[in-house]
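User: Here's a chain of 557 residues. Predict its fold as tokens.
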Amino acid sequence: MSFLENIFDQLEAAPDQTLLWELHDQATTNQVSWGVVGHGLLKRIAQARAFLASEEWNAGDRCALIAPNSIEWVAVNLAIMAERLIVVPLYSRQAPAELVTMMKDCSPSLIICGNAELRDAIKREWLECPAQALFADIFSETDPDLSHAGAPAPHNDSDPVTIIYTSGTSGESKGVVLTAGNVTHMLGCTSGRLDTLVQGHSGQEKVFHYLPFCFAGSWIMLLTCLQRRSELTVNTDLSKLAEQMRAAQPDYFLNVPQLLERMRKAVDEQLWKTGGLPLAIYRRAKSAYTHKREGSATWSDFLWLRLANFLIFPSIRRKMIGPQLRALICGSAPLNVETQLFFMMLGIPVLQVYGLTETTAICTMDDPRRVEPGRVGPAISGVEMKLGEKEEIIVRGPNVFREYWNRPDETAKALRDGWFHTGDQGEVDATGNWKITGRIKNLIILNSGHNIAPESIEEEILARLPGAQQVVLVGNGRSYLSALVTGGVGLDDAQSALDAVNAGLPHYKQVRGFRIILEAFTIENGLLTANGKLKRDLIAQRFKAEIDDMYSVKQTV
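Assistant: Prediction complete.
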């Protein structure tokens, strides 16, 4: 049975169970229950399928889906696949020109948009674009045709079900073709790991979700929740993220490092403002927790931790997320170890996940029973991982994608001798627990011949600069490293942070110069990818003058 048939079976088996909550504010929610009657999800899927069936499509035709997260997005996504079309989910906040580039690449027969503004923006960029439809067109009928409420069209494991475009950190985005077999295997793995996490839990699981469904990891989490009959609360306004997290009272939810690091800094800043006894206990408890992990704790350390666990930490947990959280799940980029330890100190496990779009989002997942900070867990069931040249992680298994859409040369380069070459560098311990150490394409090669992965150094500097938004190392072909630092950071603070980090580094890894850039790198100014990763090549081009200036004065290495 394919994942899609499984999901439809689950929907039919529990027609009255709440499935989705779409949060707009604390007073207004849009509830959807399973089943064909009322506002059930199956009814909305049937509406979307009837709309699609009104035109002549061929199995395998592409259908672009461009809209923010919503209940309608979920229904349309499932309907497209149920009609044996290939869904191409795209990020609605991406520049229209970039969206058009990707759509021209995959040649969709239909473009479905969440609103008229987005539809019109695409039309201005692509005058000869294919047919377009809005959610309002699909769900306009008050008495819809439900003849398409049956089982989805069957899929073989080799059948493509989606094309998800990579973030394009170093070039044009590529369309990753994922098959029914890829997704079916992955949902079995994710559900199995979640079974371990919620062992002993009674009742329906509650999950909060704010990441765009169009990204591979987010899409897999959505499908996993549908398959598990979880109650999924969907955020629709990032400005209300904190209050909606608390309102949802989730058992777990998927995160990116940026949010967790922002939450940690917010706690530090709030306690600093509060001052007095709470701050004193908190600071001593943090130090005590470090001693405990190092095996050097004294009786006074245990006393401070006990006080914090009684007086401070429960309040922090309550204000941040709510009382019943079992774990935070984090992926998409390496998480700062200090941030992971902060949440563990509060009694909140952070489970890391590693993977790429090409591996159906996941290669490794932390086992909730054995979490080691700084590592991303063992390979998931059925997946093999090993190190190749330059410590590159290579992968094979039923999770590996079929091909890049319409790019045979790129496919052949990535898939060699049965292994997918990830481009990521890593290390693995004797127990099979993996750590991600860098990205091969990000390596900075000094003119001395030293190869340096910048990520860990950037993280260390950023952790010592509370006002900074990003730190980006440069120095390819130069004699030493320098850094671009974004945000409202003072010169003295930046230099102090560099001095502290440099003290623990060999000479060739020390950062000798820096420039402060007041404007942060964002998706809107084109310096971050759609899922928040640095476009390093473009950053280097845009700030070439500032970088050249850092090397205009001779410095001693």
